Amino acid sequence: MTQNPGRRGFLLGGAVLGAGALVAACTSNEPAAQASAPAAAPAAGGANDAPGEKVVIGFSAPAADHGWIAAIAKNATDAAAQFSDVEFKAVEPTNDINQQISAVESLIQAKVDALVILPNDGEQLNQVARQAMDAGIPVINLDRVFPDKLSYRTWLGGDNYGMGVAAGHFIGKTLKDKGVSDPVILEIQGIATLPLTQERSKGFADALKTYGFSVTAQQDAKFTVESGTQVASNLLQAHKKIDAIWNHDDDQGIGVLAAIKEAGRDEFFMVGGAGSANAMRDIQADNGVLKATVTYSPTMAGSAIKLARLVAQGKGMSDLLEQEVPQSITLASATITKENVQKYLPLGFES
């Protein structure tokens, strides 16, 4: 999945948007200019989608060995295809740091008009992103953040802390409404050492605390189906009574749900994470333990392509008064339940 970018941007109150949709933030990294006349009214919604100057957008991301990452590439490709004025230049996806650096360098040498980069590791690709910016190529940093703000024009990503908060509130409120006291709440993380996982866990703990609850046991499952099965099996054996489970990742959730089915346990409910289509279908069917999932949508890649196009064409976002695209945009984490799942199904990715 992703490394935590920190909750640096303006947290947007909204849900997951479609592959081409943008989310608006309210701040810019540049000081407001003094003007003697009133600011011009923003363009009508959709005006920025009209064909403009032809731009070449380079794209680099990790290899699609995970459903979420595969959906990142698809959303980027689909968004670029919507515009006749965009030439999409994607390099071979890779999980090798040096290969990704070389691939980005090839895009710099090709003198693309903008770059969208989801780095395997923000710190290790920081320097090559800085090279692009120093060469006058604006970089849209997708999700895993570059530590040097001079290495990107705009950062766009999800809210890991917000995922935990959303999951914690759903579980906390559900248990309170049922009158459960001293509940057994389990947490199945992705990779425990990653900052993103730590942010998710902190948000979860903070939200549960508002209901007087806490996590009973916590274990990481490495973002894989196999580990999901193993970890869930261990937790089920260790806890004869469970009230709720939060599983951070719907991809590994396939294994978690398989272990639950194998054990024949159904006395608890579960919340997933990221918003996969298969998880949404399970929620819609409402015939198992999975009752909700909290989003961390790969549609952000489509939004990043739209942002790159606007920046390369010197445009702002038509719903904002400012003339420039914001420097940082944090997407909100929505809670998907059987009541609203139909709205989100078209945005789900296949695990």
UniProtKB/TrEMBL annotation:
Gene3D superfamilies: 3.40.50.2300. Its main location: other. Residues 1-24 form the signal peptide. CDD domains: PBP1_ABC_sugar_binding-like (cd06311). Residues 57-315 form the Periplasmic binding protein domain. It comes from the Bacteria. Keywords: Signal. InterPro entries: Peripla_BP_I, SBP_2_dom, TAT_signal. It is found in: Cell envelope. PANTHER family: D-ALLOSE-BINDING PERIPLASMIC PROTEIN-RELATED. Belongs to the bacterial solute-binding protein 2 family. This is ABC transporter substrate-binding protein. It comes from Microbispora hainanensis.
